[in-house]
Amino acid sequence: MYIVQIASECAPVIKAGGLGDVVYGLSRELENQGHTVELILPMYDCMRYDQIWGLHDAYKELSVPWNGGAIHCSVFCGWVHGRLCFFIQPHSIENFFDRGYYYGGNDDNLRFAFFSKAALEFLLQSNKRPDVIHCHDWQTGLIPVMLYEMYKFYGMANQRVCYTIHNFKHQGIGGMEVLRGTGLNNEGYYYGYDRLRDNFNPFAINFMKGGIVYSNFVTTVSPHHAWEARFTGISYGLGHTLELHQDKFGGILNGIDFDVWNPESDRFIPHPYTATTFAEKIKNKKALRERLWLRQEDKPLVCYIGRLDDQKGVHLVHHALYHTLARGGQFVLLGSATESGINDWFWREKINTNNNPDAHLELGFNEELSHLIYAGADIIVVPSNYEPCGLTQVIGLRYGTVPVVRGVGGLLNTIFDYDYDPNHPPEKRNGFMFFEPDQQGLNSALDRAIDLYAKNPPLFQQLALQGMNYDNSWKDPAQKYIDIYDFIRHR
């Protein structure tokens, strides 16, 4: 099968969050299973050009109709760790992707509407006819709209679209300027409630809604998050649209790259280990303590790795720090804040704990350090308010670091409570879970983890080993996507 992935990110060349990891990991596994995969990405000026091999001109004269005229683009081609990627570079006064950032412009809706238009135009003009176009998040939500309202009449009637939603909170909102720019000029038609009109703003079009309405199949990144999107407020207003299109909507759990996240061969940790050599893990704990100037004592080391924002339950992350210290444990945090108020809050906490030999707060992103923390910690907390899939808890399992999570989204699909899970026998359980988004809920799960560590080390180690035995690679999710691709091709 010939598959084209169109996205705004692909790790490690373009990465602002988990989307980039998913696009790369899924593409790689699809190729491993014998399919041809190409990726189309924006050519940002600030992307990691050192992660591209053999970058060269692939299509110099791409003319993209836009706003009644046309914008000239160049298309470059290169390999990102083995993945064949095409990068679209527009030449226009708007400088859509020459701004030193991926997201955050006041005209992001126009930037990615243009990218979507240019991606389709590149497929059309270069005579590429994939079996399936796989689009991701709001940035590419207009691709199925334009494909089935415009491009199918120009020789692209056989292409099918799978659309994956990674985060319902960001949906892409625009108005007539988007319709004019893309050539979807029939305002009365596209502002219809059954097409692009936002469910709560009659004067706006919604990119993500367009993706849902026009795609052949829609996925989100875990089965439980798909249920939440249908039946709770987590879809941020798109619940009715999903209900209307429920026959083509489902959830597929994300995987992780088992080559990147592998304690046996991880180049960022000093002491490799496996489930059979688990005793080596404690040497990484010692190395982590040495690096972060923590005291060397027999006590549990709890960590948090991830963004510091409301989605991640930042108030509970803060509480976990002090609750762990009160219980005689150590706490390591690696994360960056998305809001200035949260950033200031945690900088104050960093200063307050700076001389505490049992706490270290690292505010920022450090890929190398994250690997060492996964390898050195005993417990990882993931107290999210909502979590479409979550990768940190799965990486924690891979490294034998026991997760303590809130029972939402993909966390509920990957972590099975040591004491209370009704659907898994004791030998298949792998962590601790709580449900209420408050301090008492977190305490109940974190205390059980710390108590097991302190009172019964052999059972705690067995729980960690059970987590390591789970296969959360891309192998099974990729097969599920292949099944969807086959389904929509013959529908």
Which term fits the overall shape? globular
Strand content: 15-25%
User: Which structural class do you get from the secondary structure elements?
Assistant: alpha/beta
Strand order of the largest sheet: 3-4-5-2-1-6-7-10-11
Radius of gyration: 23 Å
Major sheet: 9 strands, mixed
What's the assembly state of these chains? Answer: single chain
User: Distance between termini?
Assistant: 16 Å
Number of helical regions: 17
Domain count:
2
- Name of the level-1 CATH class of the largest domain: Alpha Beta
Going by CATH, the homologous superfamily of the largest domain would be Glycogen Phosphorylase B
Short description:
With 491 residues, the chain is of the alpha/beta class. The chain has helices spanning 18-32, 108-125, 142-149, 176-182, 187-190, 207-214, 223-231, 239-244, 281-292, 314-326, 340-352, 367-376, 392-398, 409-414, 439-455, 457-468, 475-489, and strands at 2-6, 36-42, 53-66, 69-80, 83-91, 132-136, 160-165, 173-174, 205-206, 217-220, 249-251, 301-305, 330-335, 359-363, 379-382, 402-406, 432-434.
